[in-house]
């Protein structure tokens, strides 16, 4: 990762920001000592929309009991 001193970063800020946005992060240093990492911004994923399948699927009223007989046959009264 490229390291740039503050003075050079101020002088070439536009070009450095373009490189970082293109996926090339860099380090800004002061007197050769690394201070910060500049990297591309990653936007958060789109929020999930609750209820977007409403009316397209049906959940049976007894969905929590489905397969109960088969499970009891496999595991007995251990559940």
Which oligomerization state do the chains in this entry correspond to? single chain
Class by SSE composition: alpha+beta
Portion in strands: 15-25%
CATH class annotation of the domain at 2-38: Alpha Beta
CATH topology of the domain at 2-38: YefM-like fold
Helix content: 25-40%
Cross-sheet strand order for the largest sheet: 1-2-3
The number of distinct β-strands equals 3
Structure description:
The chain has 79 residues and is an alpha+beta fold. The protein has a domain at 2-38: YefM-like fold (3-Layer(aba) Sandwich), CATH 3.40.1620.10. 29% of the residues lie in helices and 19% in strands. The chain is built from three helices and three strands; from the N terminus they run βααββα. The protein has a three-stranded mixed beta sheet with strand order 1-2-3. A hairpin with a 2-residue loop joins strand 2 and strand 3. The longest helix has 9 residues, at 13-21. The protein is elongated and about 75 Å long.
Short précis:
With 79 residues, the protein is of the alpha+beta class.
Entry keywords:
79 residues, alpha+beta, YefM-like fold, three-stranded mixed sheet, 3 helices, 19% strand, elongated
């Amino acid at each position: 990762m490229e390291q740039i001193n503050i003075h050079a970063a101020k002088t070439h800020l536009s070009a450095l920001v373009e490189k970082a946005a293109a996926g090339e992060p860099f380090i800004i240093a002061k007197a050769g000592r690394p201070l910060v990492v500049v990297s591309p911004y990653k936007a958060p994923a789109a929020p999930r929309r609750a209820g977007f399948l409403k009316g397209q699927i049906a959940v049976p009223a007894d969905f929590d009991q489905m397969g109960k007989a088969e499970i009891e046959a496999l595991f007995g009264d251990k559940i």
